[in-house]
Structures are given as structure tokens and as C-alpha cells.
Amino acid sequence: MRELVHLRHGHRDPPNEHLSARGVAEARELGRRLGRFDRALASPRSRAQETAVELGRPPDRLLETLREVPDDVNDELDSARPHSFADFGAIVARRPTVRRFAVGQSVRWRTELHRVPDGGRLLVVSHAGVIELGAVAAVPAASGWGPPLGYLEGVRLEFDGTTWVRGAPLRAVP
Q1: Do 126 and 43 contact (CB within 8 A), yes or no?
Q2: Residue 119: enclosing H or E segment and its boundaries?
Q3: Residue 166 CB contacts under 8 Å (≥ 6 apart), including other chains
Q4: pLDDT at 174
Q5: N or C: which end of the chain has fewer CB within 10 A?
Q6: Model confidence pLDDT, tens digit, residues 14-44
Q7: What is the arrangement of strands in the sheet containing 2-8, beginning at the earlier edge strand?
Q8: Chain centroid offset of residue 126 CA
Q9: CATH code (residue 70)
Q10: How far is residue 164's CA from residue 155's CA, in Å, rounded to a whole number?
């Protein structure tokens, strides 16, 4: 069994691309709670890379596919305005462009998990939308996981080498 922990980047003060002092402190604290990872991937955006570093696992690789939701998918999300994982699931089911992106994320995550030893853990840090779409494609039960993810929230998925076995949302502790 292998585990994927996919998190949204830490807090930033828009329009600043970098983590805020709050984002750095919260990522360090979460990193202590999450423990060790065998590998880490991140979006090429500074805030995602910085989050991985502050979590205690600098990225081994930056993936352009984690940078953001592509414009055509984003346009569909903007028109649908998802307010929950269930909404993301419904959009994936109804809209082929979104479904292709979501399934593509799930496939990439599986591919990267094959680079982790059995029993190992993979950390991925990216952005809102990327995680929710990939999660509902990987684990249909994700549609019941409540609202979209906030800063430093994400998903924990277990993979047996062939199939996603189970998953759960990772929510921020107030």
C-alpha cells in the first residue's frame, strides 16, 4: 500500500506569490504532524514549492500539470461555481473537458506513486481545483467530502499498486 497526501499551498497575501509569515508558520506546524515522506512533488509556483519546503520535504520534482486548472476547464468551473466536492463530482460527470482533466490528474498521481516504495508516502503540493477534481476522479466517495479545500487542506488517498483503495479529506485544525 502507498499513500498520497495532496495539499493546497499555504496562506499567502494576494497578489503576493510567496507564502505569508502565517503560511510559513502553519506549514511548519502541519509538517510536524504529518511526518516523513519518501518523495515530494509540487507545482512550479513559488507558493507551492515554499509550502513543500516548510512542510519539511523539498520537492524532488516540479510538475507543470500541477500549476493550475487549464483555462478551458477553469471556464467551465467558473460557470458552474462549485461549492462542494459533490459539485466538483457533478461537473466531472457532466462535462467531458473537465472529466479529461480530472482523470488525467488521477492517472498522474498513480504514476508518481509507482516511484514510491511499497508502504511509502508521496507529498504533493498544488492548488485549489486541481486537488478536488483529481480526488473525485480517483475516489468517487470524495463527492461526500464537503466544501472545497482551504489553505493547507487536502486529501489523503491510499493506493494498492493498481487501485485507489480509500481516501479522506485533510481539513485544517482551527
Answers
A1: yes
A2: none
A3: 139, 141, 157, 158
A4: 58
A5: C
A6: 898 999 999 999 999 999 999 999 999 999 9
A7: 61-62, 39-42, 121-126, 2-8, 154-159, 164-170
A8: 5
A9: 3.40.50.1240
A10: 13
User: DSSP string covering 156-172, please?
Assistant: EEEE-SSSEEEEEEEPP
Q: Please state, for a pLDDT cut of 90, what percent of the chain lies above it.
A: 96
For residue 167, what are the β-bridge partners? 157
**Span 142-160, average pLDDT:** 96
pLDDT at 167: 97
User: Where in the sequence is the domain holding 118, given as residue range(s)?
Assistant: 2-170
pLDDT value for 57: 96
Q: How many alpha carbons fall within 13 Å on the CB side of residue 27?
A: 28
Alpha-carbon distance of 109 to 53, in angstroms, equals: 20
For the chain, what is the domain count? 1
CA atoms within a 13 Å half-sphere pointing along the CA-CB vector of 134: 31
